[in-house]
Amino acid sequence: MRFSKYQWTAIVAGILTPALYVLINKQIQRVEQTNKAQKNLRAFLIMIQYSEGTLGKDAYRKLFGGDLFSEFSRHPDIPITKGNLTSTAAGAYQILHKTWEEIQHKLGLPDFSPSSQDKAAIELIKRRTALEDVLAGRFAQAIEKCRKEWASLPGAGYNQGERSANSLLAVYKIAGGTAIAA
Questions:
Q1: CATH number of 5-174
Q2: 37 has pLDDT over 90
């Protein structure tokens, strides 16, 4: 296995384990050759999955707290309590049921399949006016704009365990994203 400078940095810093490297690379294999903007978008989506703790083969089946659901015909809408928090978050992007209903209606999504979840996550990024930043590779700006959508992003302020910007940038780059300065 050959590692890039970013991969070695992430491994040495304890951000990336060999197992996580394998998971990220499996996600990358799903991506067809696309232009830079599409690569940045796919890398950003993978980074959100990592940040939300869903990255892996069961990403699209994860409930808040880590249990799995099996039916993709609709959002599972299962309230789960962990500590002081109750949430209906589900799927690769941990979308709340109420948010899902809004997005599903707006986009006409037929189900809660992986494809529909991806489209919903992109719509949430767009809603936060961050899509152009994501496509252009303005990583820091995109994180800043999306942090209130995903509690795990730095600066979200929801007291739910935020990931560091450095760890997210490392995953983003490993997943094929290109980050540029503002």
A1: 1.10.530.10
A2: no
pLDDT digits (tens, 9 = 90+) for 94-119: 999 999 999 999 999 999 999 999 99
3-state secondary structure the chain: CCCCHHHHHHHHCCCCCHHHHHHHHHHHHHCCCCCHHHHHHHHHHHHHHHHHCCCCCCHHHEECCCCECCCCCCCCCCCEEECCEEECCECCCCECHHHHHHHHHHHCCCCCCHHHHHHHHHHHHHHCCCHHHHHHCCHHHHHHHHCCCCCCCCCCCCCCCCCCHHHHHHHHHHCCCCCCCC
Q: Report the distance separating Cα 54 and Cα 65, nearest Å.
A: 10
Are 142 and 130 within 8 A, CB to CB?
yes
Rounded to an integer, what distance in angstroms lies between the CA atom of residue 54 and that of residue 93?
Answer: 8
Q: Where are the domains of the chain?
A: 5-174
The residue from 52, 123, 149, 162 that is catalytic is 52
Residue 101 annotated among the catalytic residues of the structure? no
